[in-house]
Design a protein that fits this description.
It is built from 1 helix and 3 strands; from the N terminus they run H-E-E-E. By secondary structure, the chain is mainly beta.
C-alpha cells in the first residue's frame, strides 16, 4: 500500500454502496466510510499501512415482519493491511477445549459425560 489514495479508491470501487461493484439491489441505501490509518503494531507504516472500510445500512426483513420487525440496522467493518515488502507476520490461533476452559454462559464449568 504505497499509495493511500489509490487504496482508498480501490476499496470504494469494490464496496457495496450505490457506486460500488458489489452493490446489493435489495438493501437500499448503504453508508460507506473508507479511511486509511497507520497500524503501529505492523511494519511498513509510511504514512499508512491499512485501509479501513465501514458500511452500514437499514435492511428490510421478511420473516421478522410477523413479529412486527420491519427492518434491522446493520454495520460491517473490515481492515486490510499491507506490509510494503517487509517480512510477513506469523499469526497463530489457539482453541482450548479442555474442561478448565469450557464454561456455560452462566460461568459454570461444563462437566464431560462419563462413559
Amino acid at each position: 500500500m504505497p499509495d493511500a489514495s489509490a487504496a482508498t479508491a480501490t476499496a470504494q470501487e469494490y464496496g457495496t454502496s450505490s457506486v460500488g461493484k458489489n452493490q446489493l439491489k435489495n438493501i437500499g441505501t448503504v453508508t460507506e466510510l473508507i479511511s486509511t490509518k497507520c497500524l503501529a503494531s505492523l511494519p511498513g507504516c509510511d504514512p499508512a499501512n491499512a485501509v479501513v472500510a465501514e458500511e452500514s445500512a437499514k435492511v428490510p426483513t421478511f420473516f421478522a415482519r410477523v413479529l412486527g420487525i420491519k427492518s434491522f440496522n446493520i454495520k460491517a467493518k473490515a481492515t486490510a493491511c499491507s506490509y510494503c515488502g517487509v517480512k510477513p507476520l506469523d499469526i497463530m490461533l489457539v482453541v482450548d477445549r479442555t474442561a478448565r476452559c469450557a464454561r456455560t454462559t452462566m460461568g459454570r464449568a461444563i462437566r464431560p459425560a462419563l462413559t
